[in-house]
Amino acid sequence: MRFRLHPLAAAALALTTLPSFAQLAASTEVAATPSPDAAPPSTADVVLPQVKVVDHAPGEDYAPVTATVGKLPVAVRDIPQVVTVVTRAVLDAQNATSLTEALRNVPGITLQAGEGGAIGDNVNLRGFTARTDIYLDGSRDRGQYKRDTFSLDSVEVLKGPSSLFFGRGSTGGVINQVSKTPLKTDLNQVGFSYGTDDYTRTTADFNRVLSNTAAVRVALFAQDVKSTRDVVQQQDWGIAPSLRVALNKDTDLTLTGLYQQNRDVPDYGIPFVDGAPAEVPHDRFYGNTDDQFDQNTAVGKIKVEHRLNSWLTLQNQTQLGENSTGANPTPYRVCTTTFNNPAGSCPVAAPGAPYDQVTVQSDRRARELKDTSAFTQFDAIAKLNTGSISHIVVGGVEIGRDSTHNQAYTASRRQLDNLGNFEPNATPADIGRTRAATFTEGSARTMSVYLNDTVGLTPEWKVVGGIRRDRFDADVKTVNNSNGAIATQANGQPNAFARTDYGTSVRGGVIWQPTTRLSTYASYGTSFNPSAEAVTISASQSTVAPEKTKSYEVGAKWDVFNSKLSLTSAVFHIEKTNARTTDQLGVVTVDGRTQVEGFELGAVGRITRNWQVIAGYSRLESELKKTNDGTGTGAARVSFQGNELPNTPANAASLFTTYRMLRDYEVGGGFNYIDERFVTTSNLTKVDSYVRADVLAAYHQPRYDVQLNVQNLFDEEFFDSIVASENGRAVPGRGRTVILSGLLRWGKT
Hints:
Elements: H1 7-26, E1 66-67, E2 74-75, E3 83-87, H2 88-94, H3 99-102, E4 109-112, E5 123-125, E6 128-129, E7 134-136, E8 139-140, E9 152-159, H4 163-166, E10 173-179, E11 187-195, E12 199-211, E13 214-226, E14 233-248, E15 251-265, E16 270-273, E17 276-277, E18 292-307, E19 312-328, E20 332-334, E21 359-362, E22 367-386, E23 389-410, E24 416-418, E25 434-456, E26 461-480, E27 496-515, E28 518-529, E29 547-560, E30 565-582, E31 588-606, E32 611-626, E33 630-631, E34 638-639, E35 651-661, E36 665-674, E37 677-678, E38 686-687, E39 690-700, E40 704-711, E41 719-723, E42 729-732, E43 737-745
Parallel strand pairs: 4-41, 7-10
Antiparallel strand pairs: 1-2, 3-9, 4-5, 5-6, 7-8, 9-10, 11-12, 11-43, 12-13, 13-14, 14-15, 15-18, 16-17, 16-42, 18-19, 19-22, 20-21, 21-24, 22-23, 23-25, 25-26, 26-27, 27-28, 28-29, 29-30, 30-31, 31-32, 32-35, 33-34, 35-36, 36-39, 37-38, 39-40, 40-43, 41-42
């Protein structure tokens, strides 16, 4: 392993650590004084969280105290990895209503557009896909749907390989959604939002204290949102009930649920021409007016926590989920000689031809998907001492099952249209929609055991170490609709594949906390990615072992301004040591090597009592260190070795800040910057960098708030997400949008 310390990365660490060493030298603190943050709060301390509504308060905090990306709440300073938490206060201030909008606050994350069976929220994290690394309260949230934030208290992003706590995947990290749960105080809250381009949204949040030991909460939303893009529309609603009961002084029961319905017109973006997104108006929709994307998502969880004694807590959480999708999009691609063009039925334009001479062809992507999952986790959490050494030990077992059903539909013919003069219309009646002769069915079973120990050697030194063992077996088959029999491949063999993989994941870290305000660390972690990770597998990958990833990270977390503002910096190196790669004959092997290294800077919290900020910057240097992938054959073959990873911008930054003035007024704004990024591993196509700016103004009262958000203030034309398939597509970001919101509160506060 060769790690190059970029000069800017060294400067990043110095910015955080050097001032703290100066403070340390001048400090009069006694070294033996324990840090108040040395251990997470005892689970026995609180039954239900308290909500505070204070007259003329300066707003809720942007900075979190703890994160739950492990199996229990842990102080952020005690996690030897970069952790970004987007709190409810940030979501509300930005009017960030979707998970992807919330993740704009996390540099190092980019988006992918829908392709094939990969729909819903498609996220890249530190250069690697995180589509299957999205969690809900610590349990895998496999459903491929567009997640709304109405039911969330926060969004946590743990960066770097994290298979110790999360199992397969997590190459670039994990995204954990933290649900709203019952409070100790009654709450009545209803919000309304109206905006340009027919933007309408309503939310509600009600909490009732049933007794000294029980409370119930319900969050709801409904929206009818059009876009600055033609035709695109979202008609969605959802409900998230929860109940928390203290069964006795030592046992808590929490029930949570989520139901969300989406009735959307999907946006598959603008096609590529001559290696770049077509330079057409960004409001132009390349699809059909009757395209649809219908989803129903249901998730339910039961969590039981029992404090066996003063040092040992047992807990179990079981989550069931089901997501059904009826997708009927019609993306368009520029005609080429290599794709769906029998006998030249789709005219191919010469390179550089005027757009009114370029023909585009429809690609009907109709399908019905159903994903289900059932997972249960049993954990034991021990807080004990061996002499002068403290331990927080988490050990457990995870058992789960995923299943998927994918039924494709075909069109009788493809539509041809003109790139330069495209006008979306309804699908012609003679094209029709015919169910494919086969469907794909897959299932996967997970069995894992894990153990992690956070060891407090002294008040200043902690050591974190853990190990996990996974068994992951999956089977996928193609079935004939006519008779239910397994279909056959071209070679006459059954189109059915099964694979069982075992993975061992480790995590280790050393934390030095010389003062209560400084925490420095060095960590190492691993992850593994089986071929059937997404419960799909092809013949070429059915014999391929899991990819393995290792990560090294060094960082510092420093609290300033009376510990109200947290600064972070880290340098890291991630290496996939046996990446899947395909040779000229189409044979898939795991002898490739992929590398991403870089550094990050972050700041979150209060600069003054009234001035808050959340900001971050990431630098990523990615490279295909070894690969068989390429184009052409024989001596004319062009290798992709040495190229950058797709959708991995070298630089990304975000800033959002607000200031409370004259007691009741709040103003703020910020920006997101994403550097140019390649679309494919060939590095022949890319999309440009962009900066999106947002501003807000708000008026706060104890019983109501009024807020004005202007998103994309300068009406920047940019591409939000990209995908390499179908000759390349890029989805434009939303243009300037003005949203006026009101929030009403009543009852006891």
